Amino acid sequence: MKNLNNHSSLLRMILTTLTLSFFIVGCGDDDPNTEGNHKPTVKITQNNKTVKVGDTIRLNADANDQDGDTLTYKWSFTSKPSGSTASLLTPTSKKTSFTVDKKGKYKVEFTAKDTVDASKSDSITITATEASANSNPSSNAQKGSELWSYKFNDLVDTLVPALDEKGNLYFAENTNKYSDDPSKKSFIVTSLDKNGKKRWSKTFNKEVGYSKIMYKNNQVFCITNKSVQMFENPEGVNIYALNSSDGKIKWHTLEKDYKFTTIYQSFAVTNKKLYVFMMKGFTEGNGKIVSYDTTTGKEKGIYNLEKNKNSTSTPSLTVMSVFNNHIYFLVPDTEKIYKIKDLGESLVKDWSLELNSNGEYYAHAIGINTLALDSKENIYVVTAESGKHNSIYSISKDGQLNWKNEFESARVRLPSPITINKNDIIYSTTPSHLYSVSTTGRTRWSLVNAEHSRITLEQDFQRSPTIGENGKTYHKATYGLATANSDGSLDWEYIVENDQHASVNAEYSTLNINGNLIAMGLKGISCYKVDNTKLDSAGWSKLYGNAGNTSSREK
Questions:
Q1: Domain boundaries in the chain?
Q2: Which of 279, 458, 460, 519 is 20 to 30 A from residue 508's alpha carbon, by CA?
Q3: Among 12-21, 310-319, 344-353, the range of highest mean pLDDT
């Protein structure tokens, strides 16, 4: 009996020891870590906790790990106002942002986790009040913030939107453009207000659009084709003038005999005239420019293009620009620049100049360029010679070559269109350089992307810059925003998370009435906070010349 008691005492001692050991191990740390591991430390930094509806809020978080572990991050809303669709951009980085869309409280949480799943969180509550009726939603936003975005339904067919005097935007989309079923195709013109709110849309069923959207004097102009299949059996060229206030058709002209237009740049509009290039087909040899009265749509004059004797194809005009009543255009097939005079009821050739520079090829041939015009009616065009250099030509209004400037390109590529500021200073780009050229053809300076910018080399100065009233140039590319000062120094840059933004793969941009940068991409339009400067209205300050995309200058 004594031995049994001794065994029982020993058993109780062992069980007590095991239970105590389990308790110590189980309660020593509330994280599933190894012994001695420390949780990360985190803190959200945000000064302004009271904002207005429409503001974009940028949040930063400090996160560190005492053990040197690699950390992963996550932002999330733990609560937000009823009906809010606000979403956090870049939710797995230390920085995030969101646009306030409803009045109320937004509670945002940031969590950092180490490699053994030890985590720490911090949260912040931001209170939003209603914006006043006339407030600018960008007033409290930080530089580089995406202020608003508009997502496309299908294939956008506008490189850069047209803007009117009130800051309203106009652009176009094609639905099922490449479908074999014509009943599924449609061309949609849409207008947004300056804050990204939809004003109206106009749908053209069974039509495919090939034009930029132009705005002039309360009218929006666009050109479409009715086509069974892409480039097959077209039923004519449709020319529309829409009321800018509601999208209703003001006038419409159908050119049945002429089946095609070329893409984007073969149109221009002035106060009194709309100029359109069209052709019967690719091999019929008939191409013409027609002028129309902008108020009535009545045909006023015709100019038939010359055919190249060494080619069987129809001469294709790919860029057109207008100075008062002088029409300038380039035909790659003949490698000539033409000047046509509008005499009111007729269009008459003034001169043509051949640009043949030993194998140079033209960006115009694929429809991504313009003939830029300065205040003295000099014409500027950029060419690129394979593997060597880019060249800027300056041509007088009398058809004489003023000068030619050659500058090195980082690699073989098509050059960007030219933009010109109010002082007739010229800007052009390659993927690695932004060039500024004087009125006499001298290179003033070049800003080298690789030396100054963290933005990817291929994407920084990819296309022609937009010029602001302050003399700065603005750039939107796939991976960020960049601004250059008028003296050639880099002003600032901001890296954007391209997969989160509507303007992914944006190539061209403009500045709106609020002084914010507008960029169009594959997914839609984005508006970014910059430095409150408006578009330079006195120069050729963006693709297609001005805010309205008119490709014209008038005095």
A1: 41-129, 368-555
A2: 279
A3: 344-353
Instruction: Using alpha carbons, list the distances in angstroms from residue 102 to 46, 84, 124, 168, 345.
Output: 19, 6, 17, 23, 56
Name the residue among 265, 255, 368, 279 with its Cα closest to residue 322. Answer: 265
On whether the CB atoms of residues 199 and 253 are closer than 8 A, the answer is no
- 265/332 Cα distance (integer angstroms): 13
Q: Which CATH number describes the domain made up of 41-129?
A: 2.60.40.10
Distance CA 341, CA 128 (A): 58
Coil/strand/helix, residue 449: helix
Alpha-carbon dihedral angle through residues 403, 377, 158, 455, given to the nearest 10 degrees: 40
What residues contact 262, with CB distance under 8 A and at least 6 apart? Answer: 210, 277, 279, 316, 317, 318, 367
| 321 vs 529: which has the higher pLDDT | 321
The model carries a pTM of 0.74
Give the span between the Cα atoms of 543 and 431, in whole angstroms: 17
Give CA–CA dist 451/225, Å, rounded. 46
Q: Which residue, 157, 156, 158, 162, is CA-closest to 546? A: 162
Q: Residue 299: which region, alpha, beta or left (left: phi > 0; alpha: psi -120 to 50)?
A: beta
Are 421 and 444 a contacting pair, CB within 8 Å? no
What is the DSSP pairing of strand 299-304 with strand 319-323? unpaired
pLDDT tens across 515-534, in order? 999 988 777 888 888 888 99
Reported as a single tens digit per residue, the pLDDT across 498-518 is: 555 666 566 678 999 889 999
Q: Are strands 347-354 and 361-362 parallel, antiparallel or unpaired?
A: unpaired
Report, at the CATH architecture level, how domain 368-555 is classified. Answer: 7 Propeller (2.130)
Q: Which amino acid is at 299?
A: E
Query: Given CA atoms 261, 264, 268, 273 in this order, what sign does their dihedral have?
Result: positive
| Residue 390, both tokens | 């880019």
Residues 6 or more apart whose Cβ sits within 8 Å of residue 451: none
- Alpha-carbon distance of 267 to 212, in angstroms, equals 8
Rounded to whole angstroms, how far apart are CA atoms 517 and 147? 10
Q: Are 149 and 134 in contact (CB under 8 A)?
A: no
pLDDT tens, residue by residue, 48-80: 667 888 777 878 898 998 888 889 999 999 999
Which of 49, 101, 56, 46 is CA-nearest to residue 514?
A: 56
Token code pair at residue 193: 């207000």
pLDDT at residue 160, rounded to an integer: 87
